[in-house]
Amino acid sequence: MVWLLSGCQYLNTCDECWWYNRTAPSEKLDKGVESYAEGNYIASMAALKDVLLTKLADKDDKVSAYKYLAFIHCVSGREKLCFDAFRKALALKPDFELTPAEAGHPVWGPVFRNAKAKTGK
Question: What does pLDDT average to over the chain?
């Protein structure tokens, strides 16, 4: 146990150790996506933001978290925040693309294309 907790010194807190708080970043992402699909945007945003704050989350999990945050912002009428979330996803993964169905969405499709164009990729 001492060894386990000593590893936390390299993070801000032990809460960032997935083995300490027992919720891996991918599980938080799954919960965020599930809440999004259920239309519970408040719970989804909380889970997705947790993914972004977790230092142990990998790049793909963070890109997905930004994507779903962008979707939530767009459908909630917060186009600037939607754009910003897409830009952050693209900063992490410049070749990031939406699925054809997602790209064709009338609200966030154009915002994503604009964000992609502004990154120059």
Answer: 87
Whole-angstrom Cα distance, residue 45 to residue 41?
A: 6
Q: Residue 69: give its domain's CATH number.
A: 1.25.40
Q: Is residue 81 part of a domain?
A: yes
Instruction: Work out the widest C-alpha separation in the chain, in whole angstroms.
Output: 53
Tell me the average pLDDT across 82-106: 97
Please tell me the distance from the alpha carbon of residue 107 to that of residue 64, in angstroms, as a whole number: 18
pLDDT > 70 in the chain, percent = 80
Residue 87 covered by a domain: yes
> What whole-number distance in Å separates Cα of residue 69 and Cα of residue 8?
28
Residue 7 maps to a domain:
no
SS in 3 state form for 32-65? Answer: HHHHHHCCCHHHHHHHHHHHHHCCCCCHHHHHHH
- Given a cut of 60, whether residue 52 has pLDDT beyond it is yes
Alpha-carbon distance of 46 to 69, in angstroms, equals 10
Global pTM value: 0.81
- Structural domain of 74: 24-119
**Count of domains for the chain:** 1
